[in-house]
Amino acid sequence: MESVQAIKQRFELIGNDLKLNRAIEKAIQVAPTDISVLVTGESGVGKESIPKIIHSLSHRKHAKYIAVNCGAIPEGTIDSELFGHEKGAFTGATQTRSGYFEVADGGTIFLDEVGELPLTTQVRLLRVLENGEFLKVGSSQVQKTDVRIVAATNINMFEAIKKEKFREDLYYRLSTVEIAIPPLRDRRDDIHLLFRKFASDFGQKYKMPTIRLDEQAIELLLKYRWPGNIRQLRNIAEQISVLEEHRTISAATLSSYLPHSSNSNLPAVIERDKKESDFSNEREILYKVLFDMKGDLNDLKKLTLELLKNNDTSKVQEENETLIRKIYGGKEEEIPREESLPTEVLHLPEPVVESQVTPQRNNEDRYHFAEEIEEEETLSLQEKEIELIKKSLERNRGKRKAAASELGISERTLYRKIKQYDL
Fold first, then answer.
1. Each residue's pLDDT tens digit, 378-410
2. Helices and strands (H, E) in the chain, number of each type
């Protein structure tokens, strides 16, 4: 059995953090078995190294190793990608295709972002884990496969199970052994080591002198929280290596490359559920206000049209009072009296005898006026809808499935609206 240090050198893993060492030890111990492994950790911590270690130390090392990013495959085609399909199974299936589980028979499949799998695909995957059987899309013939599955996720699986986005039985099948990779902010002593390694690599790659940090820059480097973890640190090192002429980097220079580096290094932590809940509440309140406004505007338009058509002020006055009761909750004591209400609400214009003045609008003009009000109102609601869709897509980084769920509409409806509004 290879040592942790030997594995680090072999896979170019930098750092001496105890949690990182423990994760590598677990990977070495579990590799000779066929146990399913679930790798957890934030995005950018390097979860993809663990399945490579497991595969290389297992008896399957001479067979295929396939890495699949479940979050990058569209929901409609992921079953075909994983399990294959028969000719004619769906539009565009011009020939039979082998899926990853068939191709990797005898080897290892790494399912990255496994928490993004659709529920229907989760059922198929559970069957593979239980008895090694699967069906191609469009086929009724059961096929067998002998595949070792290593999965990874950056989401809270228990929260996903609670929200019924992930099957509990599949979670326990995948996580026979769970390996957690610590975030970079918890590996403070490793941050500068990693930066130096990346700076050296990019210096050689671009044939430039290697950059180095002064004392203040090192202190800033260690204090920063690195929300993007190792991936973010590597990108920063590459940017500075390419863009900076002076190869000794000061804290001020480093700060210009760190997003929000002037803020506190301890930002407030907001739970994802709370953010989703707040956004949902704001959306519901906004919809309620808009629909209430629409109802009130419709009532006011009816009053206006009634007055324009019939000049019946007594009937209009009665309807006006009914509208006021509706707005103020129908309680007599809460209805403002005539002297306290704005003149434009209670004091309706006196009927005008048509012979006294030259009419400025004919009946056709009046109806056009009502239609203009309706168009302005519809446009306002449409703008609010477009704004909500844009905000949801930005919040979910363009993931339409998550945005549709957040907006409380189906994916098909969201696709239609995106196409309709040309977003």
1. 556 777 788 888 888 888 888 888 888 888 888
2. 18, 11
Are residues 39 and 151 in contact, defined by beta-carbon separation less than 8 angstroms?
yes
Q: Look at the alpha carbons of 358, 363, 368, 372 in this order and tell me if their dihedral is positive or negative.
A: positive
Residue 313: CB partners within 8 Å, gap ≥ 6? 307, 348, 350, 351
| 3-class state of residue 110 by DSSP | strand
Give residues with Cβ within 8 angstroms of 244, minimum separation 6. 211, 253
**Alpha helix ranges (H) inside 63-152:** 78-83, 100-103, 119-131
Residue 34: name the closest of 145, 137, 171, 134 by CA: 145
C-alpha 369/C-alpha 326 separation (Å) is 26
Please give the C-alpha separations between residue 324 and each of 83, 294, 300, 331, in angstroms, as whole numbers: 64, 15, 11, 10
> By C-alpha distance, which of 176, 213, 80 is closest to 136?
80
Q: Is 197 helix (H, G, I), strand (E, B) or coil?
A: helix
Residues 6+ apart with CB under 8 A from 78: 70, 117, 118, 121
Q: Is the pTM of this model over 0.70?
A: no
